[in-house]
Amino acid sequence: MSRINVMKPWLGEEEAAALSEVIASGWIAQGPRTAQFEAAFAERMETGHAVAASSCTTALHLALIVAGVSPGDDVVVPSFSFIATANAPTYVGARPVFADVDPRTGNLTAETVQAALTPATRAVIAVDQGGVPADLAPLRALCDPLGITVLEDAACAAGSRYAGRPAGAGAEIAAWSFHPRKILTTGEGGMLTTSNPDWAARARTLREHAMNLSAAERSASILAPAEAYTEVGYNYRMTDLQAAVGLVQLERLDAVVRRRRELAAGYAKAFAEIEFLRPVEDPPWGESNFQSYWIEVLPGFGTDRNGVLEALARQEISARRGIMAAHLEPAYRNRDTGTASLEATERLSAGTLILPLFHEMTESEQARVIETVAASGRKP
What average pLDDT does this structure show over 90-113? Predict the structure, then answer.
């Protein structure tokens, strides 16, 4: 029996050729390919500026800094998210304050954010969980008049759409991931996008040790001028090797989203006929890229979430527990992270699992997953 992985990047000869070109050029660090990737990504996501970084986590860190978040501030974040969402405010000395999520989408809402606001709230990080776009307009209607910046954690959202535009386009600032489990991958890597030119300029400087001259500018000079370091910066650069892969992947994005939505529709049709399973779906305001396809196992199904995972594993099918509840992790369990109720977060974290979904998944592989899930809930 062949193993079915939960995710597999779609990479091919085009990416290999792009890497070879960069290697032959002699310039493999951050340089011209990175600049090309930034320009292409900004155009695709309908935003003014894109700043490549070494990961989504570092992009989130830079976003908080340029947005003016500092020690003593509060940042409202979902606990129902990968732990990096809470870590980024901690890096700048701010306090992550956990808010609950909508149990249908797994995302923050204006109501759950309102319940978590404090007098010290400086920013909100809204996550597009699993590729489901957050409903940004109500969040901004709440936060903008209060001077609170809404940052979009669009780590999973390349190819998702919100209100007819790409996810992230309506945010003042957003951060993206190109990790191998994302549908647009550069191996590792991330991107910051923003409509604010000053924020973009500062992020470019900070990612390169806050030098007043870029590596490309210094390399272009035979006798390079002496550089200065304007503040404490970071080494958060993307390489041209990664950017070359990203440029090819960006061209594949429409095709990969189209295929993922086809597979998601197949899951949805099958699970609609099975009681006590609730699959993720598009929200009324947008379309998901289905970066993760998750289902919630409801009471009455015949086994719990862990029972479904075990049944899948016995059939050589790799699935994953649902998104973590960061407030229950040792890193945050004993910290002061606010007092908002996190009932939906805990329910989703305990009751959901992520099923295999990747571009080259076959119909027979998907049928095997569906039958195994269905069989796991049948009473003996």
Answer: 98
Q: What are phi and psi of 5, to 5 degrees?
A: -85, 155
Catalytic residue among 8, 182, 269, 379: 182
Round the average pLDDT of the chain to a whole number and report it.
96
Q: Are 51 and 38 in contact (CB under 8 A)?
A: yes
Tell me how long the chain is: 380
Burial class (CB in 10 A: 0-12, 13-18, 19+), 195: middle
Backbone angles phi, psi at 349, to 5 degrees: -65, -35
pLDDT digits (tens, 9 = 90+) for 18-41: 999 999 999 999 999 999 999 999
Q: What angle do helix axes 32-44 and 240-271 make, rounded to 10 degrees?
A: 30
Q: Which tens digit of pLDDT belongs to each residue from 251-302?
A: 999 999 999 999 999 999 999 999 999 999 999 999 999 999 999 999 999 9
Pairing of strands 165-166, 161-162: antiparallel
Name, in order, each residue with C-beta under 8 angstroms of 24's C-beta and a sequence gap of 6 or more. Answer: none
Q: Indicate the pTM of the whole model.
A: 0.95
Distance, in Å, from the CA atom of 8 to the CA atom of 15, rounded to the nearest integer, reads 15
In this prediction, residue 1 carries a pLDDT of: 76
Give me the helices (H) in the chain, please.
Answer: 13-25, 32-44, 56-66, 84-91, 110-116, 136-143, 197-206, 215-220, 240-271, 305-314, 330-333, 343-351, 363-376
Residue 189 bridge partners (DSSP): none
Residue 269 designated active-site: no
Comparing CA positions, the residue from 105, 94, 210 lying closest to residue 151 is 94
Domains in the chain, start-ordered, CATH in brackets?
13-251 (3.40.640.10), 253-376 (3.90.1150.10)
Residue 360 DSSP symbol: T
Q: What is the token pair recorded at 8?
A: 């597999």
Q: Residue 227 has what pLDDT? A: 83
Which pLDDT tens digit goes with each residue over 166-184?
A: 999 999 999 999 999 999 9
